[in-house]
């Protein structure tokens, strides 16, 4: 934090957006620097003594940093402490190879880095650091085999008797430092879990079966690196029996976890193999046997036997999860196919645990353990201890091949091989200072590992300037307060900006008179409260709108507006009047003194046809308009305007030929031989117009018009371009030829149409001829040449 100086700050107000971050700081109504920095990380406190104006309360010192600077608070007097991250212990992760002759002790191996950090937290400001994790090769392993010795596991016991040496041999591929232990369990030794008849207490099995007395949990072999010792002791074990199907395995798991010294756990990878072919009892089931005391989670082994099974209930699942996590034990449930669904649900509740399918006689137990260990060791999951009130943590994982995870997935990385390095970005944020104000310690560790990271949290609860406060300062009305961070912090029982009033002696009638302007009736102009005879102005819903003045008669928001902006956006509102920025004037600072917006393309202000007023052109001739008086709807163009004068001076012709000397001397004329010699727009640094006009004889003349250094220049091509006369003979010949050709074309078209018509008619005739049918009857007008006469007298004789 920068050192303080005694430089005072001039008071002024800047209108800010109501949605600025500063509003959050002002709304908090912080009465001290310590309160201010707890609001948000963007808030700062101006500790300059003369920063406040009349009517402003102490809380006006708390604002966002940019607003404080704009309000003329010197940077050296702004209190804005920041958080930090300091690494105290940063031992690099171990690069280890099991083939190397030199072996390291477990405490010499580092898999997580760094090991200790100190974070300084300011409310609302997260601090982020990175943790690295690397699986060390040849890391030591302790494995404890916990077996159900109820009668149904008889054949399994035979296969486990040689487990020690076989498992030691297989584990040599993973680590050169391996230890194994063995324990067994049956059930609580009370009814109704076992039979309590004398004979059944000696031999709980029926028939000719020889079984050992029932027991809850027995530690048969502490963790050892001697596989043959495991085989020897396990070979001596006998099956026992109980009455109900669920077993008392949870009692055994609890004792294995908490009895570290008796079991012989080291600070290495700890594996607990839980082998059974039945379900489990849990908290509450003890009531069946009259056991109501909850499990105390302590070690109760005497002569390697659990002695309090009849006194304490079974532990709950949550209790087991806590103890297994506290003691960094990873659990492998080796259970038969029948109980797979039950133990898979249990696995989901116990972090860093696995479930394997045990064959009916436990013949596959070694493969099951190896597979489960590889699955557990390939995943790292971070957990942290209890967080102080108001503190939150966020995790982001950067795993193998750059795969990132956030949220719940930000705590873990999977598929990690030996030698792989992964990292976690952890962000810690505090929302408030703890009530005790002391440092807190949280620990972060990967589940199933003994290593942990210690994070010390220090909280910024006050400003540095508070340490320089002067108790009973004369600046606080006869020593009635502590002067710190530019303002008075009143002693108990005192109030007022300078602690000038006592809560017990305040008489409103006498003091209100000091809060009326000009002996009026309004107290503090109805915009403030009279406190100890001094007006403290009210705050508005929009924090950047402020009342000020001895009687709160001023404000910074009731000024003229332009374009819906206070003071046109070009000034500040000071006591209801606009104080304009440079180059602006007017009651609403809406009149610009700049003339750049009035410059025309020719470099002249308003094209020389008007004046620049408030940044815009006001044309003197009403026929001109436009932003720079460049538009004249009723005026001819530049070329048409100067055509007659150019024609009379360049060619001694045109309508102004007789008055040329009087009316056309306003420009300088330069003649060029051809159009290529005319000035080009790309060659000029001033506006230039190219013109093409026609005279009365239909001849074209070309010229340019420009204004350079207020001198009007006209370049004109000295020769006219007149069209040549028409050639009569080709025109007449063309017309005659055209008429003939058109006539021939019409005759050809007529002939073609007639041929087509005739062919259609002939085809029609032929078709009718083919379809005609001829009648074979006699001609009605035909008379035969033969006349036959019959004799009427002839009788045929």
TrEMBL record:
<dbReference type="InterPro" id="IPR013111">
    <property type="entry name" value="EGF_extracell"/>
</dbReference>
<dbReference type="InterPro" id="IPR036349">
    <property type="entry name" value="Integrin_bsu_tail_dom_sf"/>
</dbReference>
<dbReference type="InterPro" id="IPR036465">
    <property type="entry name" value="vWFA_dom_sf"/>
</dbReference>
<dbReference type="GO" id="GO:0030027">
    <property type="term" value="C:lamellipodium"/>
</dbReference>
<dbReference type="InterPro" id="IPR012896">
    <property type="entry name" value="Integrin_bsu_tail"/>
</dbReference>
<keyword id="KW-0732">Signal</keyword>
<dbReference type="GO" id="GO:0019901">
    <property type="term" value="F:protein kinase binding"/>
</dbReference>
<feature type="disulfide bond">
    <location>
        <begin position="33"/>
        <end position="43"/>
    </location>
</feature>
<dbReference type="GO" id="GO:0008305">
    <property type="term" value="C:integrin complex"/>
</dbReference>
<dbReference type="Pfam" id="PF08725">
    <property type="entry name" value="Integrin_b_cyt"/>
</dbReference>
<keyword id="KW-0460">Magnesium</keyword>
<dbReference type="Pfam" id="PF07965">
    <property type="entry name" value="Integrin_B_tail"/>
</dbReference>
<keyword id="KW-0965">Cell junction</keyword>
<feature type="disulfide bond">
    <location>
        <begin position="476"/>
        <end position="488"/>
    </location>
</feature>
<comment type="similarity">
    <text>Belongs to the integrin beta chain family.</text>
</comment>
<keyword id="KW-0130">Cell adhesion</keyword>
<dbReference type="GO" id="GO:0019960">
    <property type="term" value="F:C-X3-C chemokine binding"/>
</dbReference>
<feature type="disulfide bond">
    <location>
        <begin position="532"/>
        <end position="567"/>
    </location>
</feature>
<feature type="disulfide bond">
    <location>
        <begin position="575"/>
        <end position="606"/>
    </location>
</feature>
<feature type="disulfide bond">
    <location>
        <begin position="46"/>
        <end position="62"/>
    </location>
</feature>
<dbReference type="GO" id="GO:0033627">
    <property type="term" value="P:cell adhesion mediated by integrin"/>
</dbReference>
<dbReference type="GO" id="GO:0005178">
    <property type="term" value="F:integrin binding"/>
</dbReference>
<feature type="disulfide bond">
    <location>
        <begin position="591"/>
        <end position="598"/>
    </location>
</feature>
<feature type="disulfide bond">
    <location>
        <begin position="619"/>
        <end position="629"/>
    </location>
</feature>
<feature type="disulfide bond">
    <location>
        <begin position="664"/>
        <end position="699"/>
    </location>
</feature>
<dbReference type="GO" id="GO:0005925">
    <property type="term" value="C:focal adhesion"/>
</dbReference>
<feature type="disulfide bond">
    <location>
        <begin position="490"/>
        <end position="499"/>
    </location>
</feature>
<dbReference type="GO" id="GO:0001968">
    <property type="term" value="F:fibronectin binding"/>
</dbReference>
<dbReference type="InterPro" id="IPR002369">
    <property type="entry name" value="Integrin_bsu_VWA"/>
</dbReference>
<keyword id="KW-0677">Repeat</keyword>
<keyword id="KW-0517">Myogenesis</keyword>
<keyword id="KW-0245">EGF-like domain</keyword>
<dbReference type="GO" id="GO:0032587">
    <property type="term" value="C:ruffle membrane"/>
</dbReference>
<dbReference type="InterPro" id="IPR014836">
    <property type="entry name" value="Integrin_bsu_cyt_dom"/>
</dbReference>
<feature type="disulfide bond">
    <location>
        <begin position="205"/>
        <end position="211"/>
    </location>
</feature>
<keyword id="KW-0325">Glycoprotein</keyword>
<dbReference type="GO" id="GO:0046872">
    <property type="term" value="F:metal ion binding"/>
</dbReference>
<keyword id="KW-0401">Integrin</keyword>
<dbReference type="Pfam" id="PF17205">
    <property type="entry name" value="PSI_integrin"/>
</dbReference>
<feature type="disulfide bond">
    <location>
        <begin position="501"/>
        <end position="515"/>
    </location>
</feature>
<keyword id="KW-1003">Cell membrane</keyword>
<dbReference type="GO" id="GO:0098609">
    <property type="term" value="P:cell-cell adhesion"/>
</dbReference>
């Amino acid at each position: 934090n920068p050192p303080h100086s005694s430089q005072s700050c001039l008071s002024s107000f800047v209108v800010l957006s109501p949605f600025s971050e500063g509003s959050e700081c002002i709304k908090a109504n912080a009465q001290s620097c310590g309160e201010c920095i707890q609001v948000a990380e963007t808030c700062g406190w101006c500790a300059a003594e003369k920063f406040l104006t009349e009517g402003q309360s102490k809380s006006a010192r708390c604002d966002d940093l940019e607003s404080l600077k704009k309000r003329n608070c010197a940077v050296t007097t702004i209190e804005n402490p920041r958080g930090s991250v300091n690494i105290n212990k940063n031992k690099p992760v171990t690069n280890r190879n099991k083939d190397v002759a030199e072996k390291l002790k477990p405490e010499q191996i580092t898999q997580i880095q760094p090991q200790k950090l100190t974070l300084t937290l300011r409310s609302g400001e997260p601090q982020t650091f990175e943790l690295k994790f690397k699986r060390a090769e040849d890391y030591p392993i302790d494995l404890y085999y916990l077996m159900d010795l109820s009668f149904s596991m008889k054949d399994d016991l035979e296969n486990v008797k040689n487990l020690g040496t076989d498992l030691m041999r297989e584990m040599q591929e993973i680590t050169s430092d391996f230890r194994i232990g063995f324990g067994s369990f049956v059930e609580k030794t009370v009814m109704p879990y076992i039979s309590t008849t004398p004979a059944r207490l000696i031999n709980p099995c029926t028939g000719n079966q020889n079984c050992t007395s029932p027991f809850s949990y027995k530690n048969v072999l502490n963790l050892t690196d001697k596989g043959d010792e495991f085989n020897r002791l396990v070979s001596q074990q006998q099956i026992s029996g109980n009455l109900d199907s669920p077993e008392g395995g949870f009692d055994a798991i609890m004792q294995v976890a908490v009895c570290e010294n008796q079991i012989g756990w080291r600070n290495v990878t700890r594996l607990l193999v839980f082998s059974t072919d039945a379900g489990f009892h849990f908290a509450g089931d003890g009531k069946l046997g009259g056991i109501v005391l909850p499990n105390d989670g302590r070690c109760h082994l005497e002569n390697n036997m659990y002695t309090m099974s009849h006194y304490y209930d079974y532990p709950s699942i949550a209790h087991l999860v806590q103890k297994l996590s506290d003691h960094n034990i990873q659990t492998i449930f080796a259970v038969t196919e029948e109980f797979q669904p039950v133990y898979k649900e249990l696995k989901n509740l116990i972090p860093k645990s696995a479930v394997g399918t045990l064959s009916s006689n436990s013949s596959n137990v070694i493969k099951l353990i190896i597979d489960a260990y590889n699955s557990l060791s390939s995943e790292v999951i971070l957990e942290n201890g209890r967080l102080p009130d108001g503190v939150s943590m966020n995790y982001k994982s950067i795993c193998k091949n750059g795969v990132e995870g956030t949220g719940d997935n930000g705590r873990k990385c999977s598929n990690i091989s030996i030698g792989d390095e992964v990292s976690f970005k952890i962000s810690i944020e505090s929302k408030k200072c703890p009530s005790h104000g002391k440092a807190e310690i949280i620990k972060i560790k990967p589940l199933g590992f003994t290593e942990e990271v210690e994070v010390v949290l220090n909280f910024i609860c006050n400003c540095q300037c508070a340490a320089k406060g002067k108790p009973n300062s004369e600046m606080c009305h006869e020593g009635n307060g502590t002067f710190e961070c530019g303002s008075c912090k009143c002693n108990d029982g005192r109030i007022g900006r300078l602690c000038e009033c006592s809560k017990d002696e305040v008489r409103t009638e006498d003091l209100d008179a000091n809060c009326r302007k000009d002996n009026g009736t309004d107290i503090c102009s109805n915009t403030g409260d009279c406190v100890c005879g001094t007006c403290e102005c009210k705050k508005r819903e929009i924090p950047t709108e402020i009342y000020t003045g001895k009687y709160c008669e001023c404000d910074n928001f009731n000024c003229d507006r332009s374009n819906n902006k206070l003071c046109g956006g070009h000034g500040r509102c000071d006591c209801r009047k606009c104080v304009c920025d440079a180059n602006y004037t007017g009651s609403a600072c809406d009149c610009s003194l700049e003339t750049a917006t009035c410059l025309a393309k020719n470099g002249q202000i308003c094209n020389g046809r008007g004046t620049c007023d408030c940044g815009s052109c006001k044309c003197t001739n009403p026929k001109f308009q436009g932003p720079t008086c460049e538009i004249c709807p009723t005026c001819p163009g530049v070329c048409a305007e100067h055509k007659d004068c150019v024609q009379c001076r360049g060619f001694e012709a045109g309508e102004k030929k007789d008055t040329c000397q009087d009316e056309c001397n306003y420009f300088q004329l330069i003649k060029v031989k051809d159009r290529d010699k005319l000035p080009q727009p790309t060659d000029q640094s001033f506006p230039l117009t190219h013109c093409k006009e026609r005279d009365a004889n239909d001849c074209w003349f070309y010229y340019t018009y420009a204004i350079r250094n207020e001198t009007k220049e006209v370049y004109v091509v000295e020769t006219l371009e007149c069209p040549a006369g028409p050639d009569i003979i080709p025109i007449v010949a063309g017309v005659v030829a055209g008429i003939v050709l058109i006539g021939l074309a019409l005759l050809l078209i007529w002939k073609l149409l007639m041929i087509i018509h005739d062919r259609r008619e002939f085809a029609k005739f032929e078709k009718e001829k083919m379809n005609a049918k001829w009648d074979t009857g006699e001609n009605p007008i035909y008379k035969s040449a033969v006349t036959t006469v019959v004799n009427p007298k002839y009788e045929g004789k």
